[in-house]
UniProtKB/TrEMBL annotation:
This is Uncharacterized protein.
Length: 138
C-alpha cells in the first residue's frame, strides 16, 4: 500500500487485499503492544480528520503519481484499516502504526530515540496504553 512510495519496510496490514502480511483487526492491539514492550518511547499522532491529514501531506509531498495514488487510497478507506511500517532514520528503527477510518487518521510512532514530547513506554502504563490504543480502532 505505502511501502513503495516511501521505501520503508511494510510490516503488516488489516487490509485483506494487500501484498503484506495480514493481521485481523481484533489482533492489532496485541501486535502493537509488542512494539510498546520493545521501544522506550511512543509519540501520539492521533486525532487527524482524514481531510486535514490529506491536506497536510499534500502540502509536504510532491505532486507525483505515487503521492496521488497514496492519497486516493487513503481517501477510499471506509472501514477501519490499520497498518505498520518500519523505518530507520539513521538513529535506529522506528515503527509507525496508522489507523484510518472513514473520517479519521490516527497514528502512533514507537522509537528508542528521544525527540520532542515523547511518552515513556513503562510497564505500569501498559494497560492504559492498550485501552487508549483500542479506542482508536473503534
Amino acid at each position: 500500500m505505502i511501502s513503495p512510495l516511501f521505501g520503508q519496510q511494510f510490516l503488516w496490514s488489516t487490509e485483506l487485499e494487500s501484498d503484506v502480511p495480514h493481521i485481523p483487526l481484533e489482533k492489532v492491539t496485541e501486535e502493537v503492544l509488542k512494539y510498546y514492550d520493545h521501544y522506550e518511547f511512543y509519540y501520539d499522532g492521533a486525532g487527524y480528520s482524514k481531510d486535514k491529514f490529506l491536506e497536510t501531506i499534500l502540502n509536504y509531498g510532491d505532486k507525483s503519481e505515487g503521492w496521488k495514488q497514496f492519497t486516493d487510497r487513503i481517501q477510499a478507506i471506509k472501514k477501519v484499516t490499520v497498518f505498520a511500517i518500519r523505518d530507520n532514520l539513521g538513529r535506529g528503527s522506528v515503527i509507525l502504526v496508522a489507523a484510518i477510518s472513514e473520517k479519521n487518521v490516527n497514528m502512533v510512532v514507537f522509537s528508542n530515540y528521544y525527540e520532542n514530547d515523547p511518552i515513556l513506554t513503562v510497564p505500569f502504563e501498559r494497560e492504559k496504553f492498550s485501552n487508549w490504543f483500542g479506542s482508536l480502532l473503534e
